[in-house]
Every structure is written in structure tokens, then in C-alpha cells.
Amino acid sequence: MKNAKKIIMSIVLILLVVVLSGCTRNQTLTCEMNKNQSGINMNTKVETIFKNDHVVKLNLYIDAKLDESLSSYATTFESVLKNEYEKYKKEGTVVDVSTSGNTVKANLSFDLNKMSEKDKKELDIINTKGTKNATKTEFEKEGYTCK
Question: Which residue of 22, 56, 130, 131 shows the fewest CB atoms closer than 10 Å?
Fold first, then answer.
């Protein structure tokens, strides 16, 4: 009887450790898309970090290469991206946009635990609850390839 009780307690303890460690571990979903349209070859990569089926952080990487005929618009494109996201460059948000020749790069990071509700709403980051698989499905519907 004592052995059975020890075995059951050991199993419960092991299950508790497995469940608790699995629930608190962050998961990352990485999705990428390449679009070549109107003289702009744009590679976009989105890293979505989950904790307990809630999105806690988004990292967005944009690498846009403009055709030579559009290279004079590279700084304009950079300005548009900066103007769009610089206003959110507060606590929880990192914005880095740069131009080199006819290539514009943007690295944006949104820590949703630190961002204001107002900023999240403006960026249309309203529903942050969802599983990694459900989010992957939504990105794939938009044309992204996810892993």
C-alpha cells in the first residue's frame, strides 16, 4: 500500500512538473512572405512569440528592394515607414528603419506586455489570444509560409 501511494505521488509530481513547465515555456512561430509587385521585391518575416496561448511579442522584419527605375523613391518609402511606426516608439516598441541604395530595411518589435492598450488598438493588435497553430493558419491564408 505504501509503495502504491509513493508511485502515485511520484506520477502526480512528474505530471505537475511537465504540465507547469510546458505551460510557461515560450513558443515562437516564424512566417515569411516574398512579394514582387510594381517594381518592389519585398521580403517580410514575422516572428510571433506566444506564452500560454497568448501573443506576447511580435517582431517584424521588412527588406524591400526597389527596381533601379524606382530607386529615387527609396528614401520616400523609408519616410513612410518611419512616419507610420515612429509614433509607437514608446515603451515596448522598437523601430529601426534604414535605407541603403535602393534597399529599405525595417525592423519592428512590439512587446505587447509593455505597450499601451491604445497603441495596440491603433496597430490592430486586439485579439492576442490564440494558439500557435491557429495563428499559423491565419498567416498562411494571407500568403505566408510558416515554420
Answer: 22
Q: Which three cell numbers stand for residue 95?
A: 523601430
Domain ranges of the chain: 26-146
Q: Find out whether 67 and 102 touch, Cβ atoms under 8 Å.
A: yes
CATH architecture of 26-146: 2-Layer Sandwich (3.30)
Dihedral of CA 83/138/43/147: which sign?
positive
Return d(Cα 107, Cα 109) in angstroms, integer.
Answer: 7
CA distance 143 to 56: 23
For the stretch 20-54, pLDDT in tens is 344 558 999 999 999 999 999 999 999 999 999 88
